[in-house]
From TrEMBL:
The gene is LOC103629524. Keywords: Membrane, Transmembrane, Transmembrane helix. CDD domains: beta-trefoil_FSCN_ACP-like. It comes from Zea mays. This is DUF569 domain-containing protein. The chain crosses the membrane at residues 274-297. Residues 1-144, 189-264 form the DUF569 domain.
Length: 301
């Protein structure tokens, strides 16, 4: 559908709730959030047509590189259907939980319904406004405005976004109660695998790893630059073996899941490619490059 620019960026705004589909900081949940005075990249999604799959599209979160998908988990109390989630993409084939079809419902205002295998992406909390989990409704009898989303294309800017600054020194937080004292600042540690893309845009085979006890993307970049012995690099996430690469421009998700980091040398062909993936067709793997990705959107600046 023309409302989803191939290789571009969009936000999805609920018609009923006037909030946006937001990738939660645990890199797992999906919720409705207001845009706020300083728009978050967590509300930005990168649509791509699935190769050779007709009108299907996949939606990749810009914040953590994971894909909007249907889970098999029931929605929490007060919500309808099953949970929408963020998931890694590890299959070379088109998997049903990731594939969406858009049906326009309002040509004048760019509203659509997003369909997945006889189910519809929906907002919650029309009357109980605190219910903000995004779900997929399995009941098709009532296609209400809770299932309608305005597609807002994001204009691009020639300048990339700066990385968030490193955090300040942690402070000790004292909780109520006798002798209760705690300081929770960093995760318990996650495994970082990193690999360098060569000057021709191909990923090398050597994947060294290290343990990283921080959420800061600026600190992660400094650590990887030290290990790569190169300051002029760009970090990209690969959320799954067959996921598109996406530049890492926000702090790390609040979990301890391992991360695969692709290191792009500044000025290399890979840095000027948006994202790429290896897909299988008749048992032959092709490296597919998409449009320039690193020119991000001024509206998030």
């Amino acid at each position: 559908m023309e409302l989803f620019p191939h290789g571009g960026f969009v936000r999805l705004r609920s018609r009923a709730r006037d909030k946006y589909v937001h990738a939660d900081v645990d890199a797992s949940g999906v919720s409705l959030r207001p845009l706020g005075a300083a728009p978050s990249v967590n509300a930005v999604w990168k649509p791509e047509r699935w190769p050779s799959e007709g009108d299907f599209l996949i939606l990749q979160g810009v914040a953590y590189g994971r894909y909007l998908a249907v889970s098999d988990k029931d929605a929490p109390p007060g919500h309808r259907g099953v949970r929408a989630v963020q998931r890694d993409y590890n299959s070379p084939h088109a998997e049903a939980p990731f594939l969406w079809t858009a049906f326009r419902v309002d040509a004048d205002q760019n509203y659509v319904r997003l369909h997945n295998h006889q189910r519809w992406l929906r907002a919650n909390g029309r009357h109980r406004y605190w219910n903000n989990v995004v779900t997929i409704d399995t009941r098709n009898a009532s296609l209400t405005t809770m299932m309608q989303w305005r597609v807002e294309e994001i204009p691009v800017s020639p300048e990339p976004l700066p990385l968030p600054p490193p955090p300040q020194q942690p402070t000790i937080h004292v909780s109520r109660g006798l002798f209760k004292r705690r300081a929770k600042v960093h995760p318990s540690g996650r495994m970082i695998q990193h690999v360098r893309m060569d000057d021709d845009g191909f990923i090398l085979d050597n994947w060294p790893d290290f343990n990283f006890d921080d959420y800061s993307v600026s600190n992660l970049r400094a650590e990887v630059a030290l290990r790569q012995d190169d300051e002029n690099i760009t970090l990209c996430l690969r959320a799954g073996k067959h996921a598109l690469l996406i530049p890492l421009i926000t702090d790390l998700p609040h979990n301890t899941d391992p991360l695969d980091i692709i290191v792009m040398p500044a000025g290399s062909p890979g840095e000027n490619s948006a994202a790429f993936t290896v897909v299988a067709a008749c048992d032959i793997h092709f490296l597919i490059f998409f449009s320039v990705f690193f020119t991000l959107y001024s509206s998030c600046a």
